[in-house]
Design a protein that fits this description.
Elements lengths: L1 E5 L10 H10 L4 E4 L16 E4 L8 H4 L6 E4 L5 E4 L2 E5 L5 H5 L2 H14 L5 E3 L6 E5 L4 E5 L9 E7 L5 E6 L9 E6 L5 H4 L3 H11 L2 E6 L17 E5 L14 E4 L5 E4 L2 E5 L3 H5 L4 H14 L3 E5 L7 E4 L4 E4 L3 H4 L1 E7 L3 E6 L12
Parallel strand pairs: 1-2, 2-3, 3-4, 6-7, 7-9, 12-13, 13-14, 14-15, 17-18, 18-20
Antiparallel strand pairs: 1-10, 5-6, 8-9, 8-19, 10-11, 11-22, 12-21, 16-17, 19-20, 21-22
Length: about 375
């Protein structure tokens, strides 16, 4: 099932909602999830989509929300957020993201796992409220905050989730029309000895990148030195981050640019990407407030960086700040994870390289 996700429409003073619904149709969404802060005037504005909408605590006492939901609508309420749709168990709430503002990522991940422990089979958690995009992928659960339609950091935000292949896309309708040509950057990390464990991985990854128009690739680190210069990447520009203990190879192809602690910034079409592998591990114990502070400190040292890229943990992660986005694509070795950043519209995709199923076994 393909799900369109949005939150915080409020008054929708910019008339963004119909533009987002048009995007949902283009992307073949079958269901819309609204993570709260909706006004009753919009209950008739969803163009025939089935909608599951999270009511906030204040709306429970509002007469316009005490009536039965419109046809095709389902409301969730505080302490009643779990729904099973097309056989898929989901938490559809409003304020859960707020707990991440002051609590560390590790505490938040533990909180998510506690919810799953009480709701066996839960795979998706949706929440809004904080007006910026957040993604946290644990081993079994995807947490998604789609951002805000009104008063977001950047554009009129929404997200798309595919429950079949677990691809998640964070999108926005731009407030103005950019004049910069569209381009896409692939991001990976922690490939280590993937070439020995899955020899066909690199070819599959490049094909996934080709589907998405990727011409530039950033490897955040933990790459086997023998994988630098792989022929699968001969038509791509690759920026690869070396660990502090790795020596620069004597021969590096022209299309590869090696980053390091001394040279941590990749510049692509005017956009600056700061790359630090071990930052992913450091962020686990930081709250969102701490992450925003760290982002500003790094921006002071490296002016105009738009993205902070990291790795070293299995979980994929997105934190949208006012000026900088933090992205951990997740790891290659365990989960075959990757991310793609499409600019200038800042569409961020989290996906996986599929692993072939095992062949059938004849039981004698």
């Amino acid at each position: 099932m393909i799900i369109g996700i949005l939150s915080a429409t409020h008054k929708d003073g910019a008339n963004a909602l119909p533009h987002i619904l048009r995007e949902f149709k283009k992307r073949e969404a079958e269901l819309v999830i609204h993570c709260g802060d909706i006004e009753d005037k919009h209950l008739a504005s969803f163009d025939g989509f089935p909608v599951v909408c999270a009511l906030n605590a204040e709306q429970l006492e509002a007469p316009q929300f005490k009536i039965e939901p419109p046809p095709g609508w389902v409301f969730t309420k505080p302490n009643d957020r779990i729904r099973t749709l097309s056989g898929i168990k989901m938490y559809i709430g409003h304020k859960m993201s707020f707990q991440f503002l002051t609590g560390a990522e590790s505490i938040f991940a533990h909180f998510i796992e506690e919810i799953r422990d009480k709701n066996d089979g839960l795979r998706w958690i949706f929440s809004g409220h904080t007006h910026h995009q957040i993604f946290l992928q644990t081993r079994l659960v995807n947490f998604i905050n789609p951002g805000a339609v009104e008063n977001s950091f950047d554009g009129y935000e929404f997200a798309i989730a595919n429950t079949d292949n677990y691809e998640i896309v964070f999108c926005r309708v731009p407030k103005t029309k950019p004049v910069i040509d569209t381009f896409s950057v692939g991001v990976i990390s922690d490939s280590l000895n993937i070439s020995k464990e899955d020899p066909g991985f690199w070819d599959k990854l490049v094909k996934e990148f080709q589907k998405r128009g990727v011409k530039h690739v950033i490897h955040c680190g933990n790459i086997a030195l023998e994988d630098i210069g792989r022929e699968e990447f001969e038509h791509l520009k690759v920026y690869c981050n070396l660990r502090f203990d790795q020596q620069r190879p004597q021969s590096v192809p022209e299309n590869w640019d090696l980053l390091s602690l001394e040279k941590p910034v990749a510049v692509i079409n005017g956009y600056k990407f700061y790359v630090q592998l071990d930052l992913g591990a450091a962020l686990i114990d930081k709250s969102e407030f701490d992450m925003h502070k760290l982002s500003l400190e790094l921006r002071r040292k490296h002016p105009e960086i738009s993205f902070i890229l990291c790795g070293m943990t299995n979980n994929a992660f997105l934190e949208e700040g006012e000026q900088v986005r933090i992205i951990n694509p997740g790891d290659v070795l365990k989960d075959r994870n990757f991310a793609v950043i499409c600019l200038p519209r800042t569409e961020i995709t989290f996906g996986h390289v599929p692993v072939d199923p095992l062949p059938p076994v004849e039981i004698q």
